Every structure is written in structure tokens, then in C-alpha cells.
Amino acid sequence: MTIPSHGRANFSTQANALLRKNLIFQRRNKRSNCCLVIFPVLLCILLSVLQRVIDNELSKEKFKCGCAQVIGKTECGIQYSTLDQASSCPIPNPQKWPALLQVPDPQSRAVRTNGFTFPDLPSKSCRLTGTCPVTVLVTGNNRTLGQGLASNLFSTSPVNTSNLLLSLANNVLGSASKPGTQNFLDPAYTSGLPLYFVQPLCLSSLSFSLPVDIVSSTLQQDVECAQGLSLWRNSSSDINHELYKGYRKGNPERKINEFVTAYDILNSDMNNFNVNIWYNTTYKNDTGFSRIALLRVLRSINMVSNAYLQRLFGASTKILLEFVKEMPKPGTRLRIDISSLLSAQFFTYVIIALFPVVLTALVYEKQQRLRIMMKMHGLGDGPYWTISYAYFLVLSVIYMTCFVIFGSVIGLKIFTTNDYSIQFVFYFIYINLQISMAFLVAPLFSNVLTARAVGYLLTFGTGLLGGFLFQNFIQDTSFPRGWIIVMELYPGFSLFRGLYELGQYSFLGDYMGTHGMRWENLGDSMNGMKEVMIIMFIEWLVVLPIAFYIDQVVSSGSGVKRTPLIFFRSLLRKSKSVSQKHSLQKQGSKVFVEMEKADVVQERERVEQLLSEQSSSISIICNNLRKIYSGRDGNPPKLAVKGMSLAVRRGECFGMLGPNGAGKTSFISMMIGLTKPTSGAAYVEGSDIRYQMNEIYTSMGVCPQHDLLWETLTGREHLIFYGRLKNLKGSALMQAVEESLKSVNLYHGGVGDKFAGKYSGGMKRRLSVAISLIGDPKVVYMDEPTHSMEEAEVLCDRIGIFVDGSLQCIGGPKQLKGRYGGSFVFTMTTSAEHDAEVETMVRGLSQNAQKIYHISGTQKFEIPKHEIQISDVFKAVENLKKRFTVQAWGLADTTLEDVFIKVALGAQSSDILS
């Protein structure tokens, strides 16, 4: 029956209902919340423990600046320190180091090989004796000048130990060791590897003692001779090809064939000096400080410059590169901040771990069809998106705030040294982008387990790829910056880059005793924080509306798919609804009329008349509604609903009966917006189901075929939530909930306050019925609330029997029984040997009696009413009892179940014959 509605709930009422439900649901998920919070906490604790172990080790005496007793007092300084202690001491006057040339070790120098057949290279037999020369390649437009410069690259001067630095500056001194992160103590003099005098011709080896001011001992350095070989090439492309083949990846034998350097003097002449230099940038330390590798390039520049000056002005003219030295520094304590070094990779795991949490929550509502259930009871897309987004944003902000606070409390430098406002802006932008991405990809998944697996795969994959691939690209200054930006378009790499920058600034700040990243540092050319903030902010503004658009078009659990022109739906609705409504009035009756029964035809004609009159007393009108499912796996298309025409007036209870697979659920699914009609139209309270489902949902209640419930919410909480969506408030809401629980027998014994996940199947079904009726909706759909035929007969004003996709008959229960049930059903149970006598007795009463059941002495006959008198039946039975024992007998009028069986069998038989 029709009950006055409470009106449509406004935006704030719907948002309030969803927010309260989400908070209850979140409070119940204590285990998941604890696991989510414990992960970053454990990681921070692990980093803190590692940091304390490292700090404890570095606090030992061997890493402190050395001290000694001098004239009765303790003095500390670099002069009293070992090599390990030296880095902690103040260095007001850094050591002068001879400028070195980076040369390959003897086994890596360029020689002739099978894949390296240049005839002027030395034979590879020199590798057996360790006497292979170090080779320089030269080219240019002026071959005469180029060959002249090549002959002057390596000069030889006697070594004067009284002025060692000046003496070494007149020679070419090289090393195969890699430069360090700083140049207070050059690794070339402490690594144990020999130095090389590069000379045109090796005559003898020598050694010298290098006075070092920064340690208490003098470094004894062995020096070996290495022959310098200069070779001319015809073009820069030849040199480039030769250098590439000398690198391991370009060499078929997978062996390194290295050159020292290469020069292209271009258009140089006696009045103009112009040169390009090739050098090997792979000579850098593992932490990425490639600028230190440039220290080795200085000698290459000095060599070619001196060769040009000597060509112009004679052998005595040269520029002396006497030494290189580091900047002075104050005393420092050796620090290694483990959190800063590992933050990019480890904290990427922590922050992206929120992504699968948000994604699975969205997919769960889609998989369980809870999103459409809420929408069918009046929850609009605006409140859903607003509250869901804000809900996940608040959770993420709380998560990140706890993460930063906990990390700061236990002393992780990445949090304490960097400006907190920068961290807040960076994390806030990223979590917004991450939530938007979850909304964007949620429509791709229909299963929670799949979504969770993909989410955590992205989490760990991003961390691993960031740490072992992307970080190398960031540190490699030769890698194109444009490609770095392209990779940062993936949000996970943007997060990694931001964490990397925070980690680098906190590491250097802690190492140097200064602060970490500040806002003014965002302008540094090598700082990528500003870059990723801009990228993430723009992506956030782009992804969020795209996600909303896809949700509306693709429909991630919010109903049928809609037209891509969804934002022009008002124009489409007006034009299509009016034109198709008139066309359906004309064409609707032309389908199936020949095969339909008179009552079904009469209903179709009634629908056409109502459409033309536009009656306000009709709640539901269906006009030739059809649903065809496309064929799959080689099967033909399935016609589930065949031209359904039906009108239901306000206040009427209409029952649809039919066997399994008849199309009842398909019909209801179209009416409640779960599937889209293939053709035809239907109107609920004047609104078209094809274009105006949002308006229909505000006055509709649904009890779906399968119970759609939150397992961690109680029955009472379900009803409160859906009651709020129906605009019930305050005492009216509480009263409606109490009455609903009582009406479905879920009130007594505290059943209504138990979790729905603990309910039996019947209790869940009763709760679903109560949900559909809460708030007095104008139209209620119940898909198999029970399977009781007697219930349908008592409650329904009209009944339609639906078989094989079409309506077979329609009318009131008494009309149907009178029309299809003009028979009595006679039943008798005796011993099996008297079955024939019973049948003879029935045939004597009516020649047209039909046996419809027979098993183990029990027989059931259908006897036309107009052929017998009830008194005759009683007399016949009494006579039969005198001859043998009758265990039981009965005479019953036709039931609705009998009518249903008769109509269903008749329809199926007619389909087989056709």
C-alpha cells in the first residue's frame, strides 16, 4: 500500500548518514587498523635500533679526532690522528694533492683483440707482462697540428724531492683508483694501488715519500712507469666508435678495452685553440658524487693545453697545475644517518601501503554490491564521493601524522632536520593523488583479493624499482632530465624522488652539522622536490575528475553503464524520453499479441491507454520491456524478458510468480537500475528508468535476491543508516527502527544488536525486508523475500505468472483460481493392491478425471467441478471403505500453487511444440 513519504534527504543528511556508517565500520575493523599502524611503527623502530648500533660504533675512540699529551696537557688535532680519525678533526688547511690523470689498470688498457682490430694498437701479449701502454686518441680538422699536439702530450722532467709538488706538476702522474666523496684524503695515496708516471718511453721505475700534513705518518708511495701512446684518428665518429667498442657492453668479447682520454681539436690552428674532450664518467664513488670524478679531468685539460702552448712558443712554455685541494672544514663527528640513506626505499613501502587499503575498500563495496544498494535507497553520487574521499583523506592524514610524529620522537633525522611544512605539503599532495588514483583504478577490479594482490604488488614493486633503478637515474648526471620527469609521472616514482631528496638533505645536514631542506632549497637546480610537487599537484587535479567521470560512465557498482555524454544527460533525457515514449505507445502492442492470453492482452492495452492519458494514480508502468543477454562461449543470445507490459497502481501489492530462470530477477534488475533494458521503457512515479534512476531511487525500497549487508554492522545500525537516507531523523528514526525490528522478529533477545555476519540466512533475509520498508518508500521491490505460495495468495492484490521471459496470465488470486482452477483435487491413500479399484471408483464419478500423482498406494486425481457433486464423492468413498481399508483421503479446491504449476507446464509445453 502507499504510505506518505518523508521527502528526499538533502545532501547534508545523506552525507551525515554515510559518515556515521563509515565511522562505525572503521571502529569495528580494529585488527586491520592495528596491522596498518604497526607496519610503519615497526619499521621506524628497526631504523632507530640500527641507528643506535651505528652511532654506538662511531662513538668509539678510533673514529674520534686523535689526541696526545703534549707538555703536560692534552692536545687534539689532525697531526695526532690516524687515517680513520682524520675525518673527524677540523682541517683549517687542507692537504695539497698532486693533480692525477685517471688511467686504466694494466689488464684493462686498450690492445688489439678479435673484435678490436685497429692495427696501431699494441698486441694483447703486453697484458701478460703488465706493460701495456695507456692510449690517448686525437682527431681534428688540422692533422698536422693534431699530430704535433699528440707528440707533446706526455713530457718527462726529473723528480726533485726537495720540491715534490712542483716537480710532479711537470710530469703526468696517474692512478687507477676511484676518487672519493671528498678530497681531504685522496684514495689514490691510501688505497695501496701504485701511481703511474706516464712517459713517452719507460726507462726506469721510481718511488717517493709524499709528506702528508693531515695525519701523523708519512705516506710512502710506489710509482710505476706507464708508457703514454698517442694515436691519430681521421674523425670524431671513428673515435666515438672505438671508445664504445672499448666499453664492455660494446665489445663482443665482453672485456674492457679502455682508453685514457680522447681529444678532438676541431678547427684549431695557430691562432685559435678549440678542443672537445672525452672522459670516462663511470669513475665515481657508489654514493653518486660524480663531481669528484671531475678532479681527474683537470690533468687531461692541462696536458692538451700545455701541448698547444709548446707548439706555439717552444718546449719551455707550459701552464703548471701544481696541486688540487679540498675546502677547509671545521671539526665534525663521523655520522651515518641510516634513516636518511634508506628513507626513499623503506618509506615508499610505508606510504604506498595506504593505496591497497583504499582500493580494496572501494572494490569491496563494488563486489558486495553495497554501493548500488545504498544508491537504490537514496544515496546520491555527490554525498558518496564527498564522504568517501574525505573519509579516506582523514584516515591518510592521521596515518601520516602518526608516522611523522613517531619518527620524530624516536629521532629519525629525515623528519627532524627537514622543514616540517615542506614535509606536510609534500605528503598532503601525495596522499590526495593516491586516493584519486585508487578511485580511478577501482572500476578495473571486481574481486577484492585481486585488487589487494595488485595493490601490494605495486607497493613492493615501486619500492624495489625505485631503489635499484630509478635512484641510479637520479644520481647519474648524464641521464636526460626529461626522462626523469617522464618517469615521475608515475606517482610512486614521484613519491620516491621526494623522499630521496628529503633523505639527501637530512643526511648532508646531519653529516655537516647543519639543517636539512628549507623552502629556499627548492630553487636549487639539482633539487627535484619542487618538480615532483608540481607534477603530483597537477596529476591530482586531472585524475580526480577523470575518476569521477569514469565512475559515472563505466559504473563501478553504481548501476548500469551510462552514455559518455553523461554531463549532457538532461538534454538527452528530454529529447529521448519524450520521443521514445510516443513511439513505444504505437509499437508496443505489435509484439506477441497473437500468442498472449486475453488477460495479458488486456493488460497491454491498459498500459497503452495509461501512457496516452498519463494517469497520476499509476505507480509503475512497463511498456514492451525487453532484456537480451549477449551469447558467450558459443551460446546464442538469451532473451530473458520478452516484451513485458504491466501497470501497477498506487497502493497495490503485485506478485510475480515463476519458475527458476523465468526472468523475474532480470525484470526486477531493470526496474531497480542494476541492468539496462535492451528495448522498451518503464516509468516509476512518472520517471523514466533509462534516464532518471537517481530521482527514482529517492522514493524506492529494495530487498534484493541476495542479502547485501555489512558483516560488521548490526541489524539496528543497518536500519539507522538506511533510515537516515530516507530522511528520517531524531525520535522518528529511532521509532521506525524499533518498529522495523519488531515487525521482522529481530527485536527480542538483543538480536537487533548483533553483527549481521552472525545472522542465520533467514535472519539476514528478514533484515533485508526491513531495510526495503524503512522510511515508507513509495515503491518497494522484493526479489524472493520468501518462497511461500500461500503468502503470495494472501498478501497480493494481483498476481502475474511469468514463464520463459513472458507474462502468461495476470489477475487477482481468486480470478486466477477461477480461470485456471475449475477442478477439485481428490487424494486417497490405500494399500498398493487396491490402486486399480480406487481409480475405477474415480472414473465412475467423472470420465474426464486426470491422474496427476501416484506413488506407493497414494493417488491424486484432478476432477472437473461441473461433473460431480461433493455428496456423490462422500458416498463413493463410504462404499469403498466397506470393501478395504482406506488410510486417508481428501477432496480439496484448486490452490494457487496448482494454478501456477498448470500455467507453467502449459507454457513450457507450448514452447516445446513451437
UniProtKB/TrEMBL annotation:
Molecular function terms from GO: ABC-type transporter activity; ATP binding; ATP hydrolysis activity; lipid transporter activity
Pfam families, alphabetized: ABC2_membrane_3 (PF12698), ABC_tran (PF00005), ABCA12_C (PF24526)
Transmembrane segments: 34-54, 346-364, 384-412, 424-446, 453-470
PROSITE patterns attached to this UniProt entry: ABC_TRANSPORTER_1 (PS00211), ABC_TRANSPORTER_2 (PS50893)
UniProt xrefs under InterPro entries: AAA+_ATPase, ABC2_TM, ABC_transporter-like_ATP-bd, ABC_transporter-like_CS, ABCA, P-loop_NTPase
One Gene Ontology term, aspect cellular component: membrane
Alphabetic keyword roster: ATP-binding, Membrane, Nucleotide-binding, Transmembrane, Transmembrane helix
Membrane topology value: Multi-pass membrane protein
Residues in ABC transporter domain copies: 620-868
Subcellular location: Membrane
Family per record: Belongs to the ABC transporter superfamily. ABCA family. CPR flippase (TC 3.A.1.211) subfamily.
Protein's name according to its UniProt entry: ABC transporter domain-containing protein
Native source species: Chenopodium quinoa
